[in-house]
Write a structure and sequence with these properties.
The complex is a heterodimer of chains A (158) and B (449). Chain A has 158 residues and is mainly alpha-helical. Helices cover 46% and strands 3% of the residues of chain A. Chain A has a two-stranded antiparallel sheet. With 449 residues, chain B is mainly β. The chains are: A mainly alpha (158), B mainly beta (449).
Chain lengths: 158, 449
Amino acid sequence: MIRPTKLFPLLALAGLTVIFAACSQMGTMESLPASHPEELGTGRVSCSECHEDTQKGSMKPLTAFNHSSEFVKNHRFYAATDDKVCATCHKPSFCADCHTHKVEMKPSVKFGNRPDREMPHRGDFMTLHKIEGKLDPASCYRCHGRANNQRCVVCHTR
Amino acid sequence: MKKTACHLLSAAFFLSLPAAAFAADGSLNSTSILRVYQDDRAGFASKDLAPVTEFLALDAEKLGDGNLSAHLYGWGRLDLADDSFNNGKTDASLTYGYLMYRFKNANAQARAGRFMVTDGIVNEHVDGVSASTDLPYGFRVSAFGGAPVHTQHLANENTDGKGNGIFGGRLGYRFGGMLEVGVSGVYESGAPSLDRPGNIALERGARLGDHRLVGGDIWFSPVRAVELIGHTSYNTETSGIAEHTYLLNLKPAKKLLVAAEFSEHHERNYFYSSALFASMVGDLSEKSRTTGLSGSYELGQGTEVSADYKHYSRDIGSADRFGANVRFTHMDNTMRSGIGYHYLNADSGFAINPATDDSASFHEVRCYTMRDTKTFFGALDAIGYFFKEKINNEKSAWETIGSVGYHITPALALSGDLSYGQNPQYNDDLKGLVRLTYNMNYSGKGDAK
């Protein structure tokens, strides 16, 4: 029976070998670019107009990121695992237009000159939220559950 | 001590701002908005409001050895007339402010300061540090730690309900262009004790407690035309599933996308760390389920049609929403328009006052058009909600917004909005807004908004 203390140096050596091997490989692994190399047009982008390949660095086909209405509506699924892909074209402030710490005004008010952007809570949402909140409170929680809820706590107390 | 150290990280960010002035690359985005409107509702004192708000975003790239960058976004407000939101004459917020170092290989990066974390099931706002990198053989790892960014105190409490420390991360595996799986988790230190009897009752009833979740996520695309994406989270405090949410995308043709959606939330487990939401669960239900089907099709150059259907199922009833949208883009994308209609058919349990046997059903109609040229820009936007049964003796809630603006320079623009509407809250809801925007990009980053 070999004592664990005698095994430790061997395990440490094996661990270090794995780490060095990984580091040497990582030196050859490509990164996504910090920004899109070419200026993009205004409006929604269809990546597959120019790209047909699987994006190196994300290992996903860029067709997955075409900005259809469906993509915009469900972009949270992509942002949860591919925020570095988003960051090649979008500045962090693009996300903060809606996803913020303390909301000062509805995004649709701040961007009243951009009705084409799918900003949430258009119109009289003060009335509507009393219905929508019962329909799908989880969708409220994603943005207002543990952050960005200083307006909510004024009325919602127990 | 830990909390102080984390907030010092955010402070350190500001000390680095002078260096950002020497950045070779970056962008500055400023939006100054003056709003003028009246808040006049039954049961409340009338207010004349004229808040002026400055939103500022700064991205300074290629600092130091060229791989360091600084990012800042925040806002400040000054009330020129009556106080807004009972916060006094001024208010401000820092959404994020962090330094980021991008390594040359393996998508490795490190951040320090205040930032958002979206990683697998993790969705947090943190003062602290984070690091992520790809690993050989398709693996990738990310981790973060620090203090949660605290927000407004709960009513009559001296806390927002969040603990003082938080850490988490994700381990993922990708198989070239076909599969990604990941496991992720978040662990927050013990939530502070609350004082209000209602909140104490929630804690004692095991409906409110610490924020600790683990989960898994998947992206699976066996062929280009099929894509499954989603995640499941598990609350280790309540020992129960908190959320399943999955999306199946089918692309049978280049311009056609069909999506099926499934979401299920076990609300005690999902809302467990939020006094705000946990207090509402008892009045609603323990489980909610949403299933949906939607699709979009590009009819031709500049025209997209989309339709969607969603079914909501809860203990208090069920509801169906269906509708369609059409989007148009013309004149080299300088003119964009859209029109949409949706109908929500909802049981009385979803009505604002279910006891009165009201209906929660309503029609939603929206249309907009905008034009953006090198010199001027303008937009018209109208949205109306038409209730099946009156709410506060009103049959509808509608709003129209008109906006006109002028590009003083390519980076500087002045615009004004005027909106008018009627709804159950206000008889005549008239609001004015003046907006000055300055968007200067020094780097040619892909999207200039």
